[in-house]
Design brief:
This protein is an alpha/beta fold. It has 14 helices and 24 strands. The strands form 7 sheets. It has a 5-stranded parallel sheet.
Length: 443
C-alpha cells in the first residue's frame, strides 16, 4: 500500500514534470478589470494569429489574424464564428490535423454527455494545463497531495474492458481509489465506506447522481463515518442541486463543491468554498454566454456556453460551443467578461431503474459509446415493456463490432432485452437539446 508520505513525494515529482505553473490562475483575479481585459485580449489575439495562419483556418480567423491591436479584436470578438462539435468532426478532425500539421500531443474524446461523443486534439502545453487546473482546483477545495481520494465513477469493467496497467499504477501512487458507479446498489456504498474508513481523512469525487446514491444508502444503513473522515468533496460531469448537497452533508459531514468542466478544457469553473460562486479558470479559459444570435446574453438570462482556450494549439477551441446552458448576473461580470458562474443549466445524468431492479447511472451510455466511434449520436429509450431501445446515428457497425457491443450489453444488463436501430436523426427537445436517456410515454 502506498503511504501518504510516499504519495506526497510522488505528487511532487509528477507535478514538476507534467504540469504547467499555475501562478497565472492565482494572480489573475487580483488584477484590475481593465488589466484583466487587456491580458485576455492579448492571449486571444495570439491564438487567432496562430490558428488564422494555419491552412485549416476559417476565413474570419484569417482576417482577425491580421490585427495588431488586441483592443480591436476585443471589440469584434462577438462577430467571430462559433465552433461547433460538428466542425470538430469535419473541418478539424483530430487525426487529420495531427498528420497534416505534424502536431505533437494526443487525440482524446469527450464522454458524450449530450449523446454526441466528440474527438479532439491536445498539444503538450494544453495537456500540462489540464493537469494543473485539475490539481490547482483540488488544492483550493481542501485536498492535499498525498491525501487519498475516493472516486465514484464509471468502471472500465462496465464496458468490458480492464484497467490499463499504466492507469492502475498511476491511481495507486496518486492514492485514487475508484469505485465503479454505473451499476448502483448497496454494495457500491459499502465499498465507498470501506475505503473511507481505511484511508481517512479522504476527499471524495464523482458524478453527482452517484455521490447522491452513496449518501442515501449510507443514511439508510445508519453507517455514516466519523466527522472529518471526508474533509472535502466535489462533483463532476453533472449538475449539482441543493438537495444533493444536503443529503451528502447529512451522510458525510462535508459539502459537495461544484466543479464544472469537460475533457476538452479540463476545469472550466470551480466553486472553492461553500457559498461561493464558480470561478472561471481565467486567463486560461475565456467564457461567454450567448443568445440564439451568438451575441452576449442579457445578465441573468440563460444562454449557450462558449469557451475559448488561450493555451491549446491543437484543436482550435475558439468560441467553442460546449453544449451547456448557463447564466451570469451583472455582478458576475465586468469589462473583462464573465468572472464567475451563478447558474449552470447543463448536464443532468441521474439514474435509470430497470424493471429487474437494476439501477444504471445514465452516464454509463456516454462511457460505453466513447469506445464505439462509429456512433456519432445516441439516445436510450426505456420501453413500457421493460426493454431498451437504442437509437444510433453514425456509420454503422461491422459484424465484429456488432458482436462486441452485444457482448458488453448482455454482460452489463443481464436479462434486460435490448435492440438498436440506426436512424438518420434523433428527436430533440423543443429547445434543441439531445436527451440521452428517456422513458417511453404511454399512448
Amino acid at each position: 500500500m502506498i503511504t501518504r508520505l510516499a504519495s506526497k513525494l510522488w505528487w511532487r515529482n509528477y507535478l514538476a514534470r507534467s504540469s504547467r505553473p499555475w501562478n497565472e490562475l492565482e494572480e489573475f483575479p487580483a488584477l484590475t478589470p481593465e488589466r484583466q481585459r487587456r491580458v485576455l485580449a492579448e492571449r486571444l489575439l495570439a491564438q487567432l494569429q496562430y490558428f488564422g495562419n494555419r491552412a485549416d483556418a476559417l476565413p474570419e480567423w484569417r482576417d482577425a489574424a491580421r490585427l495588431r491591436d488586441p483592443d480591436e479584436l476585443w471589440r469584434n470578438w462577438a462577430s467571430l464564428p462559433v465552433v461547433t462539435r460538428s466542425m470538430l468532426k469535419s473541418i478539424f478532425e483530430p487525426r487529420q490535423m495531427q498528420a497534416r500539421f505534424k502536431l505533437k500531443g494526443r487525440c482524446d474524446a469527450t464522454g458524450g454527455s449530450t449523446g454526441e461523443p466528440t474527438q479532439f486534439f491536445h498539444d503538450p502545453e494544453m495537456i500540462r494545463a489540464g493537469v494543473s487546473s485539475n490539481i490547482y482546483t483540488r488544492t483550493q477545495m481542501g485536498w492535499k497531495p498525498g491525501m487519498g481520494t475516493v472516486i465514484v465513477w464509471g468502471g472500465e469493467r462496465d464496458i468490458g474492458k480492464s484497467i490499463p496497467f499504466r492507469i492502475d499504477q498511476w491511481n495507486r501512487f496518486a492514492r485514487n481509489y475508484v469505485v465503479a458507479g454505473y451499476s448502483l446498489d448497496r454494495a457500491t456504498a459499502e465499498r465507498v465506506l470501506h475505503l473511507i474508513r481505511r484511508h481517512q481523512p479522504v476527499a471524495m469525487y464523482g458524478f453527482t447522481s452517484m455521490l447522491e446514491h452513496v449518501a442515501r444508502e449510507t443514511l439508510a444503513m445508519k453507517a455514516s463515518p466519523p466527522l472529518g473522515s471526508v474533509c472535502t468533496a466535489w462533483n463532476g460531469g453533472e449538475m449539482l442541486y441543493p438537495a444533493q448537497v444536503d443529503i451528502f452533508r447529512k451522510a458525510f459531514g462535508a459539502t459537495i463543491l461544484n466543479r464544472y468542466g469537460g475533457r476538452e478544457f479540463s476545469v472550466i469553473a470551480c466553486q472553492f468554498r461553500e457559498g461561493e460562486l464558480m470561478r472561471v479558470m481565467r486567463p486560461w479559459v475565456f467564457l461567454e454566454i450567448v443568445d440564439d444570435q451568438n451575441k452576449p446574453a442579457s445578465p441573468g438570462v440563460p444562454g449557450r456556453v462558449l469557451c475559448s482556450s488561450t493555451i491549446c494549439r491543437g484543436t482550435p477551441f475558439l468560441r467553442y460551443e460546449i453544449g451547456d446552458l448557463a447564466a451570469a448576473d451583472s455582478s458576475d461580470q465586468d469589462e473583462s467578461g464573465i468572472r464567475t458562474l451563478r447558474d449552470l443549466h447543463g448536464r443532468t445524468g441521474s439514474i435509470l431503474e430497470l424493471p429487474s431492479g437494476k439501477k444504471v447511472g445514465n452516464l454509463f451510455w456516454n462511457h460505453l459509446f466513447k469506445e464505439f466511434s462509429e456512433v456519432h449520436h445516441f439516445q436510450i429509450i426505456l420501453k413500457q415493456d421493460g426493454g431498451l431501445q437504442l437509437l444510433l446515428k453514425g456509420v454503422g457497425f461491422s459484424a465484429a463490432r456488432e458482436e462486441e457491443l452485444k457482448h458488453v450489453l448482455r454482460s452489463f444488463l443481464g436479462e434486460t432485452p435490448f435492440r438498436w436501430t440506426w436512424v438518420e436523426q434523433i428527436p430533440r427537445t423543443p429547445q434543441g437539446k439531445l436527451v440521452q436517456v428517456v422513458r417511453e410515454r404511454s399512448s
